[in-house]
Amino acid sequence: MFKGVVTGVGTTIAASTIIQTGKGVMLLCPDIPCHVGFGYNGGYLTHKYRKEIISITSKTAEQSKDFILRQKEAIKDLIAETQTDLKTMMF
């Protein structure tokens, strides 16, 4: 049921980890030509896989919206059930 959501969350975590690791590498390597090389390689890979990145991002956004809608429905059902339980307990 939540396979798509888990995949989207996993992808987001992986991307965040890569970004944080890249920041650490940049701090450890103060040589400017090295930074240019990292930037070139990062730009190349981003350009090469741009269609996959865009499709994954779009899927993740759709799955997030669906997940939020399901959670809203579940909360509404829970509130309605609680209200009926309270009414029955009072009388």
Outline of the structure:
The protein is 92% helix and 0% strand.
Tags for this entry?
single chain; mainly alpha
Helix content, binned percent:
over 70%
Number of helices: 3
How can the largest sheet be summarized?
A: none
Protein structure class: mainly alpha
Shape: elongated
Count of individual beta strands: 0
Please give the alpha-carbon distance between the first and last residues.
39 Å
User: What's the Cα radius of gyration?
Assistant: 22 Å
Report strand %.
under 5%
Low-confidence stretches: none
Mean pLDDT: 76
* Topology order in helix (H) and strand (E) letters: HHH
Describe this structure in words.
The protein is mainly alpha-helical and 91 residues long. It starts with a helix and ends with a helix. The protein is built from three helices and no strands.
Topology summary:
Layout: H1 3-28, H2 32-48, H3 50-90
Helix pairs in contact: 1-3
